[in-house]
Each structure stands twice: as structure tokens, then as C-alpha cells.
């Protein structure tokens, strides 16, 4: 774990307490009592999920404004982990995020270093700011907002923790892409469940319309086990039963990956990297087509730019309106906090003696936008109907029904996730991309890393509402087709550390 800053809480639970929990769980196992299939397994959770002070960690969402807040209890999703016998090793800092927006211009990094953990020389950010970093986006000089040196969404700590071998499982959250984007870049599997299947109480919110917690792991089976454990209502049949090894019962639709690709301002083009990814996508499409029950090419899924209504982005309007109201509701459930409402968050001043490194030109555009938003109930309802209609009725459901398919597959490096976020209910799965063309690696069980800089890349699948089982079927088929992840080396404090397999 990262070294803690003097002004900040330790991001991991006290070691003595962890040993006591592990010992107690071992005693339970020896006595023949298992709380579940993940009994005694460690997990790391995101720093926006409440943990009771007795666990020795603080929930801050990466913000000094919440540093002294005390949750009344564990968030229900955290309590379910404990009840299932998992050991919460620690929290991961939030260092990238969507800033409570849905547009491509809002994805930022670098406000303040709160937990003492860095992504290269980038600073840990508070997700509601819209700051300009000191040097550039990501670890590479001159990189763009989701460039090849960026770890991607705000749950990238969840992904990095598993990829680096700190924990076999992790729990993050997503509004739009924050689970599945970083999972792809760390060569992991993840799923954003249908909104509402997992309690969001006790989680620092962006939008109840789109938010959901979700698991990450190295295999579809691991992810299925963790999702089983955190659902509000346990499934009648474990999702692990859906992790098959065949495409034969799946009908698959593919979007045109070039149409959905990020623009140059969001993902700085590197010709060799782009060619490698395009080649791998094409080969993956071809291999799936040869095995699937049926397929549909270039399905005309509605595009992210189609959400404007009377000159306003309906998605952005809904998320900003939700942000302030949902944050106020979150504060009311805390045992204590220095904040009284969203406006006190907006006006929060960092103490002069705080050990904080600020980037130049930092601001809080997104929080100001949410606070200043004037939107009547009728206007909100109109925008919400437009979002749901475009994302669900004229979006995902239309494509699934018209083409008689179970899942839609597209590139992870895209705004593909916005459509699922808009629909609210449809699920998302992160499928790490195997390299299968002759230019790179043969399909020998190795997942794809860019020759350019070694970062992972992948694809996403979207299914209909409450169709998580279909996503796990697709993940299982993918895993069987392209093979397991190869552990990757990570670098910490100048030392090479080998990840666990």
C-alpha cells in the first residue's frame, strides 16, 4: 500500500485488526462454518464507499472536505462483503473520474494528493473538480484526457490493486465508464450491474440515475462470485453458472469500432497503437462470428452526440441535477461531517496548514455547474425521459430486439458506456481484449498490451436490463476463446514488483 501523508488517513486497515479478522475467519472455517464461497478472501474497495470508523479507514472520495466525516455505519455493500467472509484490506484513492458529467470534456485528473498515492507524477484528484494538471494528462508529457498513459476512470485504483497483486478482488463504482474503462486497461474483467440491483446507500454519489457499484477480478468466475455476494437480493442461481466456455448460445451484435472511437482531443492518436488495436478488434470480431449462434455487423446503435434537447445535453443536465440533491442526501446519513449541504462543499476552503500539493489553475467547474443549475421539476423530467428514451427505447432495447441479439460488443476506448449509463438498467461487462493477429501475439492465452507502452486494451459488452447472466456467458466465452491474463510487472518507488498470477 502507499505511504500515508501526515495530513491524511491511512488507506489500509490496521494490520493488527486485519490479522484478527483473518484469524477469526480461519477459526470459523476450521469449525466447519463458511460464510460463503469467498470466505477469507481479501478485497479492496473504492474511497467513496462508507466504512465505519471502527475499521480504521476514512471515506473521503478523495476530498479534504470529507476528511473529518464519520459514517454512521458501513455502506450496505461493504457490510455484505464482511457478512460474506471477505476481508476488506483497504481503500483505494480516487485519482481520476468523470466529474459528475457525461460529456467527453469532463474526464480529468490531478487536483490534490490526499491519500499519498500517485499515478506516475499525477496527483490524486477530487472527482467533482475540473482541474488543469500541472504538466499534462496521465504519466506521459503532453498526453490527453484519456490518453495511452492514463489509467482511465475513477475506479482505476480498484483495477490497479488487482492487477498489481495487492488483492484478488476489488470493488469500485461507475456512473459512466469508471469500472469498465480501467478494468480494460489493466486486463481485468468487470461488470456494471443494472442500476438498482446493488444498494447505493452509503456511497458518495454522482447520480442515482446512473450510479452502481461493481466488482473487478482476473477471471469472469471471480467477478461472478463477488457480484453474487453484493447484490441486494441474492440470485436464485449463482452467476458462476452462466460462465460457460462457448459462444454457441449467444447472438452477438457488433458496433463499428471506428465510428465509436475517441476523438483526438480525448485519446491522442498514436498510429502504431491505433493500428494494433484496430487489427485486434477486427480479428476478435471474426473469431466470435465463427463461433456465435448468430451475429449482426455494424448495428446502428444511437450515438452519444444524439442526447441534445433544445440545445442542452440531457444526460449532463440530469447528472448535474442529481449530483447536488444526491450529495445532500448522502450527508444526512453521516454520523458527523463539517459539511451541511452542497453549498458548503462548494465553498469549502482548504486549511492553510494542510499538506496538499495543488496543480496550477485548479478550479471546480463541475461542482459550480451543479450548484448553479436552474432546472424545474418538469424540465428535469423532460430531460430524464429523453435520456431513458434514447438510451433504452431507441437505443439498446431497439438494437437487441430488431437484430435478435443478446449482447452488443464494441471497443472499451470509446463512449460506448454512455448509452448504457443513459439506459440506467442495462448491464455492462468489461471484456479484456486478447491479441490474436499475426502482427502481435498468437492466441496462446495472453491478453493484449500495446506494443507502444504496454498498457492493456479491451472491449465492452452491453446487454438488456437484468441480463447480467448473458454478460457472464459472453465473458466466459471470451475467456475460453482468448485465454487468461498474463501477470504484468508493475513499478513502485523505482522498484520492479512482480504481480501475482
From TrEMBL:
Spans annotated as Disordered: 138-157
Protein name as it appears in the record: Amidase domain-containing protein
InterPro entries (UniProt xref): Amidase_dom, AS_sf
Boundaries of every Amidase domain copy: 17-96, 149-258
Taxonomic lineage: Eukaryota, Fungi, Dikarya, Ascomycota, Pezizomycotina
Amino acid at each position: 500500500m502507499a505511504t500515508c501523508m501526515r495530513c491524511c488517513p491511512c488507506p489500509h486497515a490496521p494490520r493488527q485488526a486485519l490479522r484478527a479478522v483473518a484469524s477469526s475467519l480461519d477459526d470459523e472455517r476450521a469449525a466447519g462454518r463458511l460464510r460463503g464461497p469467498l470466505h477469507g478472501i481479501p478485497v479492496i474497495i473504492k474511497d467513496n464507499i462508507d466504512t465505519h470508523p471502527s475499521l480504521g479507514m476514512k471515506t473521503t472520495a478523495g476530498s479534504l472536505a470529507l476528511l473529518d466525516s464519520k459514517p454512521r455505519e458501513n455502506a450496505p455493500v461493504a457490510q455484505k462483503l464482511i457478512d460474506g467472509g471477505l476481508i476488506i484490506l483497504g481503500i483505494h484513492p480516487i485519482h481520476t473520474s468523470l466529474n459528475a458529467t457525461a460529456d467527453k470534456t469532463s474526464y480529468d485528473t490531478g487536483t490534490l494528493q490526499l491519500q499519498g498515492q500517485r499515478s506516475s507524477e499525477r496527483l490524486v484528484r477530487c472527482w467533482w473538480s475540473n482541474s488543469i494538471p500541472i504538466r499534462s494528462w496521465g504519466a506521459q508529457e503532453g498526453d490527453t484526457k484519456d490518453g495511452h498513459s492514463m489509467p482511465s476512470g475513477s475506479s482505476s485504483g480498484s483495477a490497479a490493486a488487482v492487477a498489481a497483486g495487492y488483492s484478488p478482488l476489488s470493488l469500485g463504482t461507475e456512473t459512466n465508464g469508471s469500472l469498465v474503462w480501467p478494468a480494460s486497461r489493466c486486463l481485468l474483467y468487470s461488470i456494471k450491474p443494472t442500476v438498482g440491483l446493488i444498494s447505493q446507500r452509503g456511497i458518495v454519489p454522482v447520480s442515482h440515475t446512473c450510479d452502481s457499484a461493481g466488482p473487478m477480478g482476473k477471471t469472469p468466475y471471480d467477478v461472478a462470485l463477488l457480484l453474487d455476494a453484493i447484490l441486494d437480493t441474492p440470485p436464485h442461481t449463482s452467476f458462476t453458472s452462466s460462465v460457460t466456455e462457448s459462444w454457441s448460445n449467444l447472438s452477438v451484435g457488433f458496433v463499428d469500432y471506428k465510428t465509436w472511437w475517441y476523438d483526438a482531443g480525448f485519446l491522442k492518436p498514436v498510429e502504431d497503437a491505433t493500428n494494433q488495436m484496430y487489427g485486434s478488434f477486427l480479428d476478435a470480431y471474426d473469431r466470435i462470428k465463427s463461433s456465435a449462434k448468430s451475429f449482426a455487423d455494424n448495428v446502428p446503435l444511437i450515438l452519444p452526440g444524439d442526447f441534445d434537447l433544445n440545445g442542452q445535453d440531457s444526460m449532463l443536465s440530469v447528472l448535474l441535477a442529481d449530483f447536488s440533491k444526491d450529495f445532500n442526501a448522502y450527508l444526512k446519513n453521516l454520523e458527523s461531517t463539517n459539511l451541511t449541504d452542497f453549498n458548503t462543499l462548494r465553498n469549502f476552503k482548504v486549511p492553510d496548514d494542510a499538506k496538499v500539493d495543488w496543480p496550477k489553475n485548479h478550479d471546480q467547474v463541475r461542482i459550480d455547474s451543479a450548484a448553479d443549475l436552474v432546472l424545474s421539476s418538469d424540465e428535469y423530467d423532460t430531460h430524464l425521459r429523453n435520456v431513458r428514451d434514447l438510451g433504452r427505447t431507441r437505443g439498446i432495447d431497439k438494437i437487441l430486439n430488431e437484430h435478435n441479439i443478446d449482447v452488443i460488443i464494441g471497443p472499451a476506448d470509446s463512449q460506448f458506456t454512455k448509452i448504457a449509463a443513459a439506459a440506467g438498467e442495462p448491464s455492462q461487462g468489461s471484456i479484456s481484449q486478447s491479441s490474436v493477429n499475426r502482427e502481435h501475439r498468437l492466441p496462446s492465452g495472453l491478453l493484449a498490451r500495446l506494443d507502444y507502452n504496454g498498457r492493456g486494451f479491451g472491449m465492452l459488452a452491453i446487454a438488456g436490463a437484468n441480463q447480467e447472466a448473458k454478460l457472464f456467458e459472453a465473458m466466459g466465452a471470451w475467456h475460453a476463446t482468448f485465454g487468461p491474463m498474463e501477470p504484468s510487472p508493475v513499478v513502485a518507488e523505482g522498484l520492479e514488483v512482480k504481480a501475482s498470477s
